[in-house]
Amino acid sequence: MSGDLSFFFYPKSVAVFGSFKEGAIAYEILRNIVEGGFDGKIIPVNPKGGTVEVAERSFEIHEKLDEPVDAAIIAVPAKIVPSLIDEIGPLIKGAVVISAGFSEVGNDALEQELVEAARKHGVRLIGPNCAGIFGVHGKFFGSFEVRVKPGGLALISQSGAFGGAALAMGNDEGIGFSAFVSYGNASDLNESDFLEYFADDENTRAIALYIEGVKDGMRFMKALRYATSKKPVIILKAGKSTSGAKAAASHTGSLAGSYEIYRAAFKQAGAIEVEEMEEVFDAAKAFEMYPKAGKRVAVITNSGGPGVLATDKLERLGLEIARLDEGTVEALKSFLPPQCSVKNPIDLIADADYERYKRTVEAVCRDGNVDSILVICVPPIFIPSEDIARAVVEADCGKPIVANFMAGELVKGGVELLENAGMKNFPTPERAARALFWLSRR
């Protein structure tokens, strides 16, 4: 086991090494830490000394580190990193090495030197050649990437740039994060260590992992099995094609290996493998709402087309379109207009209002053949999407409900109302169907 890494994600004190000229990486990281509201001790270090103004606070720049801190963030030229670690080793628990210029450019000897310096002092390393880390619940934004809202998703990314893009996209998608770590060359700590750590982190509800390749397959499998036994693990694997695998090998110097082997391994460990970036967030949204869901789905819609699209997608994914009980069909007929379809998918037709949606959700929810419900709403101009959102939220139903309110401006109010009640919206019927598929995998 990798042991406790909380000094990285919940540090009480941090030192930042590098240039504090505006626009320099160390300056940007310092700014992120201060603006992000970190309330521990912050020590900027540069041999030139001086002061730095950041986010309306003034810091004295220490010429060297002269007191113990939990974590050091290092953005100095690669060639001086090993000697710096040797010097500050006795004062720190962990170091995040942002600096590039190591094994990723063929400079293996320098990276080896760095690892040996850290081992000598029992210091754990993240990086080198990485974008840093966030411990969102510790209000610690030790990276130059965009800050995010607190929530339940821990994002582990081999690639810094992918991580940064994913954080920005997560913000747009309304995802809350517990942590982010970009681990670059994985000279010491790697994806397996982080999987084990976040499996036990109480603020993390789901783990998302972007990998190009792993160095130690046995260790990875053990860590992945451990993590999936505790919470959902969503994996996006890059380098699936032959040329993709070659590119991945040159990018972080890892063995990309045959994709088929990875795919089998993910499946065996019970991880959720996704195909593209937006799916990482769709899966995360699903698991933020529910731990799991059964395979038998009822679809409720006010528009035939999207209902059919959802049904097609559900069946292609191997889910079942639930067969409604006779009693449920009778109950629906008792209050729905005769032109509504009471077979699953249930079409409430265009003028469906609050009452019609709420009663239908409740009737279907009571059916023993139904495990989960997909509610689609394409509101006509004359019925506010807020009404339908309220119906979904206020319906008395204890089963997983996934919503697809479409499209755009027309449903903005309804989507906001859902979000405030802790229900995430999926913008297309297919994405909503996939969310139920991932829940069924648990």
TrEMBL record:
This is acetate--CoA ligase (ADP-forming). SUPFAM superfamilies: NAD(P)-binding Rossmann-fold domains (SSF51735), Succinyl-CoA synthetase domains (SSF52210). It holds the Pfam family CoA_binding_2. It comes from Thermococcus profundus. The keyword ATP-binding applies. It catalyses: acetate + ATP + CoA = acetyl-CoA + ADP + phosphate. SMART domains: CoA_binding (SM00881). GO terms for molecular function: acetate-CoA ligase (ADP-forming) activity; ATP binding. Keywords: ATP-binding, Ligase, Nucleotide-binding. It comes from the Archaea. Its EC number is 6.2.1.13. Residues 8-102 form the CoA-binding domain.
